[in-house]
From TrEMBL:
It comes from the Bacteria. This is Diguanylate cyclase (GGDEF)-like protein/PAS domain S-box-containing protein. It comes from Sphaerotilus uruguayifluvii. The lineage of its organism: Bacteria, Pseudomonadati, Pseudomonadota, Betaproteobacteria, Burkholderiales. The chain holds residues 515 to 796 of 796 of the full protein. Residues 24-277 form the EAL domain.
Length: 282
């Protein structure tokens, strides 16, 4: 029977899939030790005010310095970390590291908002709000300088529970932002009730600006919606001058993307800031 099953299995799995599964198994066990081995790093991508280029904040983006594979981006390990709940300790590490860095910038006279991406499991953990409160107390970071990025999907699951948690976070004074806006399935009636501060226009729309009519219409509508709701609106993935001009003309508040600045480590970010001359007001 075992032999028959063995043969059946090999008929269903390509050798490539088998090696991929083995790779994942190895990656998973290495992921479990990556925090203690200090293999994670944060990069910070600048966010600037659209009207005058003023440097206002950063988004923290995780990288994994894998001992054999080199630098891995989130797409290569976050899903795996989520599957095995390793995202909870990894996410806690990201928050601690981001808050520590933000506190240093503050102390150095460079107040920047630091935005951190959350995963569903992390946000749903019963002690999540308490962990943020403890983090703020521990680091001494003024709460308004920490921004938590949530996706539409995270906000639309279990609406009453989410509303309660968001209200508690808001009470702590941290900022809340909806990431990749326009790609999920937000209900506008729920959106109206969410205590959020910011919306980020997904880069799939931004990338097609200004020529592509549909994306231009959607980006414009998201900006209108955010402003109508009294929220700050940020465009992500801004690469070109034409995109920047479109977004500025349509009233987008902040810009983030390779055309503004790449994700950089803290030292390189300081050099980036010193090297640039702020754009004169339009
Ligand atoms: P996101 O939150 O939408 O982050 C923006 C992503 O777009 C980043 O990719 C960034 O490097 C990339 N990007 C920035 N500017 C441009 C541009 O002009 N053009 C293009 N094509 N791409 C640009 P990254 O760092 O690979 O992160 C991918 C995703 O992984 C993030 O998307 C976020 O959802 C997730 N992620 C990153 N860090 C963390 C983390 O610490 N925790 C969790 N749970 N997720 C994270
Ligand atoms: Mg994000
Ligand atoms: Mg995003
Ligand atoms: Mg995105």
């Amino acid at each position: 029977v075992a032999k028959a099953r063995g043969r059946a299995t090999s008929a269903f799995f390509e050798p490539r899939q088998v090696s991929l599964a083995r790779d994942n198994l190895m990656l998973e066990s290495q992921l479990g030790h990556a925090i203690e081995h200090e293999e994670f790093a944060l990069l910070f991508q600048p966010q600037v005010r659209a009207c005058d280029g003023q440097f206002v904040g950063v988004e923290a983006l995780i990288r994994w310095n894998h001992p054999q594979r080199g630098l891995l981006v989130p797409n290569e390990f976050i899903a795996l970390a989520e599957q095995h709940r390793l995202i909870v300790p990894i996410g806690a590490w990201v928050l601690r590291e981001a808050a520590r860095q933000a506190r240093l910038w503050h102390a150095a006279g460079t107040p920047l908002t630091v935005a951190v991406n959350l995963s569903t499991l992390q946000f749903q953990a019963p002690d999540f709000v308490a962990s943020i409160e403890a983090l703020l107390a521990e680091t001494g970071l003024p709460p308004g300088w920490l921004e938590l990025e949530l996706t539409e999907r995270m906000l639309m699951d279990d609406v009453p529970g989410v509303l309660a948690r968001l209200a508690q976070l808001r009470q702590l004074g941290v900022k809340l932002s909806v990431d990749d806006f326009g790609t999920g399935y937000s209900s506008l009636s729920h959106l109206k009730e969410l205590p959020i501060d910011k919306m980020k226009i997904d880069r799939s729309f931004v990338q097609e600006l200004p020529q592509q009519r549909e994306s231009a219409a959607i980006a414009g509508a998201i900006i209108e919606l955010a402003r109508g709701l009294g929220l700050t609106v940020v465009a992500e993935g801004v690469e070109t001058e034409a995109q920047r001009e479109f977004l500025l003309a349509h009233g987008c508040d902040q810009l983030q993307g390779m055309g503004i600045g790449a994700p950089l480590d803290a030292a390189a970010l300081q050099a980036w800031q010193q090297a640039r001359t702020p754009r004169a007001p339009a």
